Amino acid sequence: MKKVLNGLAAIGFVLAGTAGVALAQEAHNAAEPTHFPIHKPKEMDWTFAGPFGTYDKGQLQRGLKIYKEVCSACHSMDLVAFRTLEDLGYSEAQVKAFAAEYEVQDGPNGDGEMFTRKALPGDHFPSPFPNAIAAAAANNGAAPPDFSLIAKARGVERGFPTFVFDIFTMYASNGPDYIHALLTGYDEQPPAGMEVPEGTHYNPFFIAGKSLAMAKPLSDGQVTYEDGSPETVEQYSRDISAFLMWAAEPHLEARKQTGFAVMIFLVLFAGLIYATKRKVWANAH
Amino acid sequence: MSGGHSTYSPKTGIGRWIDARMPLPRLVHDSFVSYPVPRNLNYAYTFGGILSIMLVAQILTGVVLAMHYANDTTLAFQSVEKIMRDVNSGWLLRYMHSNGASFFFIAVYIHIMRGLYYGSYKAPRELLWILGCIIYLLMMATGFMGYVLPWGQMSFWGATVITGFFTAIPVVGEWVQQLLLGGFAVDNPTLNRFFALHYLLPFMIAGVVVLHVWALHVVGQTNPTGIEVKSKTDTVAFTPYATIKDGFAMVVFLAVFAYFIFYIPNFLGHPDNYIMADSLKTPAHIVPEWYYLPFYAILRAITFNIGPIDSKLGGVLAMFGSIAVLFIVPWLDTSKVRSAVYRPWYKLFFWIFVINAIFLGWLGSRPAEGAYVIMSQLGTLYYFAFFLVIMPVLGLIETPRRLPNSITEAVLEKNKGGSAHPAGATAAPETRG
């Protein structure tokens, strides 16, 4: 038995040793990094985080304005219907007026012709390009990703042991944290010696490489806010990230509210069943 | 409980009328009310019941989701998003179903580990164990095909990688792969047949569960001591004792499940699956669902050729072998003592096995490069050594601790001192240790 234990200890040492090698391999030189993103995104405070999180309607409205005035030139948002904008605090009439600013293709009409008309609340945001190939052709071969789910479709790996703590802290803001970090990360200069491919833009927060095709999309004062919020890249980035989280998860508030009721019920029910269990088993021992 | 007397006596006229014609109420009464269970079952034994409700929950949510789902590659992704956005409580159903798969596996892994710890597979429960292994295999197939249905990037590329394993099989491999795919690559026919099978397999699972429970009720449950039931004082009636205990465990389990559904519903998923499948864009790291990761690590651990077997086939054989070995566990364990409680060495190796399995799971999520490969190989070695070397050898050389004479004695020993039980009369148990 001793031998077996010694063997196990030996295996343990080998494992520890190889783990050390693995960590050593992860150390990379600054000029040619091999793991992306180069910097992990900063964790932000979001109003929608935590068990009682709700969207800040003013923030979503500002985010919508940024999407409309900046992002929507290249990025579609196919899955989001205008009617759902009522979640942002707009009235039915306001949504109708907002939709009417867009044109969508409809048809065929009685003559078999396709035609364009003003969008109705039931329509979805129209795409800036007629199809994915046109989008790619207009953007150096890489179609800009659709924005409907982007806040859930991006997330920098948290790593061990952080991902375990995330269960208890209810961390679920990988997406908005990433978008915010990316949009505010353009100003950093590439380290000396790094080659940034032509036509791409260095951003140490980009998830899939050292640089990306999209140029810095936001600059201070670019979008006018009517509610007095600061017109800075930092504020813009927070607002669009929150808006995209809403676009990806429109029922987040209902989910958390339902969840609270369900948790209260289950905890009380568990307590009652436990008390009953104690009583039933009291005469069995 | 074979040959046990039925204690069911219908009290009403209509009850007697039914009992004389089709005694279903009698079957239910004998199976879930008067059925005797060992009195010393702990909470590890509640996962059978938890798995039953998880299966029912998955089938119910799945049937409703299927009413809104479109199994066509051009529509599938959008139809799932329509469920998330426009179907009443669709987000709830879908998060219940996707997290439900994970919690189904959490429960089944605890259930299997409990079986391994307490020696539940030993005679006369070999068939009970094998039926359980079949259920587990069916679960894996169902889970895999279900993950393909949302038609995200991981759905598509996971399906491509996993069906690709079959091409490693000599002679028939390519044919098997094409049969699974319905073509030469993952496409609409693949999605269609996976949807059909994903709907079918849970009902097959339910069928095997009936056999599993039947086999259980013939041989009776094991218990933490591993000693068979000897007298009536060793048992309590299923209802109310086991039902209330199972009920409590279920509600606690559901509370953890609900926490994930309502607060971190995408924690166990992969962000890439919110990107629609694209056969021209390969994700940087293709990883399967977390519950397959240990097996994925074993698959990728075989990076060398073994004689005529090349590394690809070797990996596939190791992966399937790691599940196949479970089927012969009843004959690999040579110990006369059933429960790890009385087997100090087996207990140690068992817990190392559990840690190793989790470690392999973590390795499965890492890229297969550098030191991770070596660690996977060591983990794989221990996985197989546990079943093929430690189990047979340890049973022959280990000196088990003294077993109590009966379950009742074990319970009294445990309650000795402090307990209100007046049963000092039973065979004075020696002090432990």
TrEMBL record, chain A:
Signal peptide per UniProt: 1-24
Superkingdom of origin: Bacteria
Primary residence: membrane
Domain Cytochrome c positions: 58-248
InterPro entries: Cyt_c-like_dom (IPR009056), Cyt_c-like_dom_sf (IPR036909), Cyt_c1 (IPR002326)
Entry's transmembrane regions: 258-276
A Pfam match: Cytochrom_C1
Subcellular location: Membrane
Keywords: Heme, Iron, Membrane, Metal-binding, Signal, Transmembrane, Transmembrane helix
UniProt cross-references to PANTHER family, sorted A to Z: CYTOCHROME C1, CYTOCHROME C1, HEME PROTEIN, MITOCHONDRIAL
Protein name: Cytochrome c1
Organism (species): Aminobacter niigataensis
From TrEMBL, chain B:
Family note: Belongs to the cytochrome b family.
Bilayer topology term: Multi-pass membrane protein
Domain Cytochrome b/b6 C-terminal region profile per the UniProt entry, residue ranges: 228-405
Ranges for domain Cytochrome b/b6 N-terminal region profile: 14-225
Subunit structure: The main subunits of complex b-c1 are: cytochrome b, cytochrome c1 and the Rieske protein.
Protein purpose: Component of the ubiquinol-cytochrome c reductase complex (complex III or cytochrome b-c1 complex), which is a respiratory chain that generates an electrochemical potential coupled to ATP synthesis.
Name used for this protein in its record: Cytochrome b
